[in-house]
Amino acid sequence: MANRKGRRRFGWVRKLPSGRFQASYLGPDGQRRHAPETFERKGDADRWLSVVESEILRGEWTDPLLGRVPFAEFGERWIKEHRLGERTREEYQSLWRNHVVPFLGAIELAEFSTGTIRSWRAALLREGRSEDRAAKAYKLVRAIFNTAVDDGRIKRNPCRIKGAGEHRAEERMTATVPQVYALAGRMPDRFRVLVLAAALTGLLWGELIALRRCDVDLTQRVLYVRRRLAQLGHGGMQAGPPKSAAGVRNVALPAVLVDELRRHVERYAGPGTEGLVFRGEKGAMLRRGNFGRSTKWQVVVAAAGLPAGFHFHDLRHTGNQLAANSGATTRELMHRMGHGSMRAALIYQHATTDRDRSIADALSELVDLGRTDDNAAESKEEDGEGGAAGALIPVA
Length: 396
Description:
The protein has 396 residues and is mainly alpha-helical. It has three domains: 12-61, GCC-box Binding Domain, CATH 3.30.730; 71-150, Tyrosine recombinase, N-terminal domain (DNA polymerase, domain 1); 177-347, Intergrase catalytic core (hpI Integrase, Chain A). It has helices spanning 42-58, 71-81, 86-104, 114-126, 131-150, 177-185, 189-201, 205-208, 255-268, 288-295, 297-303, 313-325, 330-337, 342-347, 353-389, and strands at 12-15, 21-26, 32-34, 216-217, 222-225, 228-231, 237-240, 249-252. A three-stranded antiparallel beta sheet has the order 1-2-3, with helices on one face. Strands 4-5-8 form a three-stranded antiparallel beta sheet, with no helix packed on it. It has a two-stranded antiparallel sheet with strand order 6-7.
C-alpha cells in the first residue's frame, strides 16, 4: 500500500534496466529479502508485497532463506537426529538411499510442490519399485516435510497425494489349529513351545525371543511383554522396549499352553529370573537365520500341510485371527496385538466362512425359537376360541 507521497508503507519496488520490476522488503528479523523472481508489471510486484505483509501480520511468515536447503542435507540430518529404534533407522536409511536421494536429493526444500512429489512417486513405480516400497518411501518423505513445516522452513507439506502412503498388503497366510500342532510336533523339542506360543498369543518374534523367566507368570497365566530383541543389518542383536507404548502389555495365556510352557521353562530356559525363555542350542539369543536352518523350516512347513512361503510371522497372524474368531472386540484385539490404532485389529475382523456360518446358524436358532413361541401362542388362542364356541347353551 502506498502513502500520499507515492511511497509504499511496506517494502520497495524498483524498475530494472530490463524493464521488469523487483520487489523487496524487511523481514521481521530486520534482514532485507527479495522476491524469488522479478515481475512484468509493477502491480504484480505490489500484490506480491501485500501477500507477504499479510503473512507477517498473521504470524504465518516463513524465512525463505530457511527453505534454501537441499533435501538430501535436511533429510539425512532428520534420520540421524530423529528418535528412532536402530532397526527402524536402518530401514529409513535404506529407503532414503535407494528410493529418495537419487530422485529428490538435489532439490531445495522451498522448490518442492505436490507435482514434484507426484512425479517422483510415478517414477518409482515406473522403474519397478514395489507399491509397498513406494508407499514406505512416501511416508518417510512426508514425515521429513512435516518437520520442515514445524521448523518454519516451508509453509505447507507438499506430500498431499491421497492414498500414496497406503499399500494393500497381500492376504495373510494363517494356519488351522491342527496345522499349528503338526508344525510344532515336527520342530526340535526346544522350539515346539515357541511355535505354539506364537500361534496362541500373537506375540511378535522379537517379543517372544526377548521373554525372560520373570516375564512368565504361569499361576496367573500371563506373559508380561516389556521388551523386544531386534536383529540389525550387521547381525548384531539390540534389546529395547516395544515399538510403541501400546506394545507394553500383559497377554493372557490360553490354559492349553500353561503346562507346555512350564515344561519348556524347566528344560530349556536360562538360569535365574533374567534367564531367556527361548534360546538356541548353545544357550545364545535366537536369530532368524540360525532358527530357520536348525529347524529346516520350509521342510517342516510342507510336512505340516502348510503352503510354501509360510513364515514364522504368519503364526502371529494365525493367533490374531483365532482371537478374532473367538469373539474378541476390536479394543481387545488391539490390546492383545500391542497396537495403538484400530486399523490393524480390524484386518482380523473381516468375515470368514466359518464365522459367517456360525452367525447364520445363530440366526436360524433365533428364528426357530421365535416361530416356536409364535405357534404356541396361536395354539393357545385357538383353544380359547374353540371352548367358547362349543359351550352348552342352557334351554329355557
